[in-house]
Structure formats: structure tokens, C-alpha cells
Amino acid sequence: MASHSDANSLRDFWIPGHVLVPDSVVEGSNIDIEGPKCPVLVFVNSRSGGQLGGELLKTYRALLNENQVFDLGEEAPDKVLSRIYANLENLRLQGDHIAIQIMEKLRLIVAGGDGTAGWLLGVVCDLKLSHPPPIATVPLGTGNNLPFAFGWGKKNPGTDEQAVKSFLDQVMKAKEMKIDNWHILMRMRAPKQGPCDPIPPLELPHSLHAFHRVSEADELNKEGFHTFRGGFWNYFSMGMDAQVSYAFHSERKLHPEKFKNQLVNQSTYAKLGCTQGWFFAPLFHPPSSNIAHLAKVKVMKTHGGWEDLQIPSSIRSIVCLNLPSFSGGLNPWGTPNKMKRRDRDLTPPYVDDGLIEVVGFRDAWHGLVLLAPNGHGTRLAQAHRIRFEFHKGAAEYTFMRIDGEPWKQPLPVDDDTVLVEISHHGQVNMLATHDSKSKSENDPSSPHHNDVEEDDSDDEEAKADEYRKFGAADTFKIPDEVDLAHLS
């Protein structure tokens, strides 16, 4: 049973029942009543982290109002947020003082893997809420790059009452930080036979949606082609690193009982890196699968024209990185020194500067340089947009990955084409602790915060509103048959 002091501290996070129930009517005036200092809505992927997700769900429901804690296996976040914000607006119009305070102060907590966190971020972005709430992430996955990048750690948390109270206290003290969203478009010629959604044997990640799930009149679709699009916050990668990730996910799908422990998951990942040949890439990886042989790569550094990006012939993996956290917390871009910033027009990896960092790796040994204090990958470019145009006949397939979700991508064999284009999409609000690895160009405490020129172009505004959707809310729903553990 909670003590009196515990009950008082939890009151800071507690949302009254009438705010959470649709069509509530305000009885009397509550203008003099102080609402919660830090109201939170909690979303838990109960299948993440082995048994931890379910245990965390129980603890949050025991400490808070059950109606402010949601199991993502039972209800999608777009439905929850649409319902609650509609109710908040209704109460605001009735003059409900507490509802007005909650609207202004609300914070979200999401517990799950990077895929789960990305799902919620996409929903908040799509719903275009009047007061978009900032989001804190609880690390319940394998890589946990999103939580690590904002100071929430990368190890699975404790699920007891004390651990949850400690996390809530951190949420109250956390600062808001804007981060860039990135839109990804993939287009391929429609096969002459067979269904197209997905194209067999293509199993796309849930963050990529077929165009007609977003809008029948999607301007980005072309006749005779299949168009998929979605968004990411952490990274897009292609090549051998994604191949290892694909092997890991395939193994987990076949034998889920073996993947109930974060340490076991990470050791299995390392073993697969060896068996897939990532440590011996020159022996096991055909040169035809190197990035330069697979595709022509173009970048747009500012709102100007496309430029060809020269990729060294030895690069077998390319990472387009938004956050300074990859592969469980490593920073492939590092921090370029003053000379490199001047000579190559490079900047530190700010998360809100409208630029994505493009890094290349030769093999896993090259990746190990990231463990050194100033280690980094091969810095290829910083760009506002990047485009991959795949060469016909270069290879049958390649491996790709978005925010931890990998897939095996068929490539053109004759005159067909596969195009992948990544572009800046706007921003969303995150919560960061004082240990945050992510840096803002607008934060005076970030090093060299004046070095980057603010990108104030309104080019994105000219695009149709449908283009600006990730398809995470309303028009997209994870199918019932999909195991939510896949998102962890």
C-alpha cells in the first residue's frame, strides 16, 4: 500500500477520470483546482522485453489511473490519442480548467523497442495535435537506440514500483527537444503477375506503407509502379549490417522462445555477425553487393539540385543517421574537428538541423572503430535529401533496415527500377534527460551551436498534406495477425 508521501508524489502524474472518459460533463467550476504538474499517458508494448512489458504494464496501472495506461496489444495509439484529445477539447470549450492545464502539460511515455516508439512518434506527427505532447521512451527492445540517444539508457528497466516512480520523476525533470522526422519513399515497377501488397516475397517493415493505405490519390504514386512510404527518426541502413539484422529477426521469428532475455538477444546478434561473414566481408561478400555497385547515390545538401555522391568501392554498408545512436548506442558520425568542418563543410550531428548524416562501413572490423573515444565511420555527406537509384542486374536483392526493422529487398533484373528517396519531413518533440547524447543546434549548451545555419526554406510546405503523413494514424493499422513482439 502506498504511503501518504507516495500518494502525494503520484498526484503530480495522475489524470482525473473525467478527462479520460468521452462525453464527460463538468459539474461546477474547478477554476481554483490545481491540476497535475506532469500529467502522463503511458503506452506499453506488453510483448516487448520478454515478460518485462507485461510486468511494467501492471505496475503503471497500479500506481496511476488505469485509464491513462494503455496496452498497445489491445488498442492502437492513434485511437487513444484521438479519443482523449477530442474529450480534452470538449472539456476546454466547457471551461474545464483542469482539462486546459492537462492539454498544455501532457507528456507521453512509450515502453517498447525502437519500432514501438517510432509507431507512437508517427501517430503524434500524423494527428497534427493542437498541443503535440513530448515523448519519453522506456528501453524494452534489443538495440534501444532511441532511449539511449535521449538519456533514458539502453538496458531494460526495473519493473517494480520504485523503478517506475524513479522513471516518472525523470520524466517530470526532463527537457523538451525537437528532433527531425525523415520521410522515406520506395518505388518499384509492378510485377506482371501476382498480388502486390506486399510484393512476394517482400515483407516490409510496419513503418513502410503501401500508397493506397495512405491515400487513393497519393501524388507520389506512378502508374505501373508500386509506391511505399513512411518515416523514421533514427536511421535507414542498407548492406551487410542490415543483412545481419535480417538474420537475427528471421531467427527470432522461427524460435521466439529463445529470445526472452536482452543479454541473450545481444550475444545471438554478435554470433550472427560472424556467421553472416560481416567480420570477413572481403571473403564472403561479393563485390557486386557493395553499395557503389548496387546503386547510384545522389544527395541534396541544400534546397538546390541533386549531386552525385561518390561512394568508395570498399563500402559494404551505408547508414543514413538522424540520431547519434546506432547499433546499441554507438555514434558513427562522431564530432568532426574544426578543420574538417571548414574543409568539408561538415557539422556536429545535431538532431534538429534538417540534415541527415550519411556514413559508410567496409565491414564489422571497421565498425569496431566506433568503440574508440574518437572513432567514427567513413563520413560520406550531410544532406537534406538522399536518393538511391538501383542498377539493373547488379544483384538479385539487397538488405535494408529502418529503425531496427530489416527486410530483404528484390532488385531490378532487366529494365525495371527500384528507387529509394529520403527527405526531411518536419519535427516532433522528445523528452531528454541531462545525460542526453543528442544535441540541438538551438541549445546554447551544445558545442558549436552557432556553426550551423538555420534552414528556413518553406519548400516542404508546398507539398500536399497527404505527402506529409507517415500513414501511422487512422489510415494505417497493424494487422491483427502481426505479432507486436516484431516491433520490439
TrEMBL record:
Residues 452-463 have a biased composition (Acidic residues). SUPFAM superfamilies: NAD kinase/diacylglycerol kinase-like. It holds the Pfam family DAGK_cat. Its EC number is 2.7.1.107. Residues 433-470 are annotated as: Disordered. It catalyses: a 1,2-diacyl-sn-glycerol + ATP = a 1,2-diacyl-sn-glycero-3-phosphate + ADP + H(+). GO terms for biological process: defense response; glycerolipid metabolic process; intracellular signal transduction; phospholipase C-activating G protein-coupled receptor signaling pathway. Residues 434-451 have a biased composition (Basic and acidic residues). InterPro entries: ATP-NAD_kinase_N, DGK, Diacylglycerol_kin_accessory, Diacylglycerol_kinase_cat_dom, Diacylglycerol_kinase_pln, NAD/diacylglycerol_kinase_sf. One of its GO terms (molecular function) is ATP binding. One of its GO terms (cellular component) is membrane. Coiled coil: none annotated. Residues 35-188 form the DAGKc domain. Gene3D superfamilies: 2.60.200.40, Probable inorganic polyphosphate/atp-NAD kinase, domain 1. Keywords: ATP-binding, Kinase, Nucleotide-binding, Plant defense, Stress response, Transferase. PANTHER family: DIACYLGLYCEROL KINASE, DIACYLGLYCEROL KINASE 5. Monomer. Phosphorylates the second messenger diacylglycerol (DAG) to generate phosphatidic acid (PA), another important signaling molecule. PA is required for plant development and responses to abiotic stress and pathogen attack. May be involved in the accumulation of PA during cold stress. Belongs to the eukaryotic diacylglycerol kinase family. This is Diacylglycerol kinase. It comes from Glycine max. The lineage of its organism: Eukaryota, Viridiplantae, Streptophyta, Embryophyta, Tracheophyta. The gene is DGK3.
